[in-house]
Specification:
Blueprint lengths: L1 E2 L6 E4 L8 E4 L8 H16 L6 E2 L3 E3 L9 E7 L7 E6 L2 E6 L3
Parallel strand pairs: 1-4, 6-8
Antiparallel strand pairs: 2-3, 5-6, 7-8
Length: about 100
């Protein structure tokens, strides 16, 4: 999974083609659930396969949620004092931004 170093609630789970990458909001209930989800994914994959999957904390994510080849999207993060919770915003074609509230 790819996590973010900011105060927002989205997690990307990259999958092998032809499956689509999953971009999940883990804060829909108002509580951040990143650490719990990352732990569950890591432990489940390890238990089933013996493989340790990387958990990356990154400031920009490239993902493919549609799966046509060469259609990757970029996801960035921006603090926005006008939002109360994380918000997904389409900036332009294949460029998206997560707006998140200040600390």
């Amino acid at each position: 999974p790819h996590l973010r170093p900011y105060r927002q609630t989205f997690m990307l789970i990259p999958l092998r083609p032809p499956l689509r990458d999953l971009l999940i909001d883990l804060g829909a209930n108002g509580h951040e659930s990143f650490s719990e989800m990352a732990t569950i994914l890591y432990n489940t994959v390890f238990k089933l396969t013996g493989r340790q999957i990387p958990v990356n904390v990154v400031s920009q994510i490239t993902y493919n949620n549609g799966r046509p080849k060469n259609q990757d999207s970029t996801l960035t993060f921006q603090e926005d004092p006008k939002v109360q919770a994380s918000v997904f915003k389409n900036v332009k074609s294949h460029v998206n931004c997560i707006l998140y509230p200040p600390k």
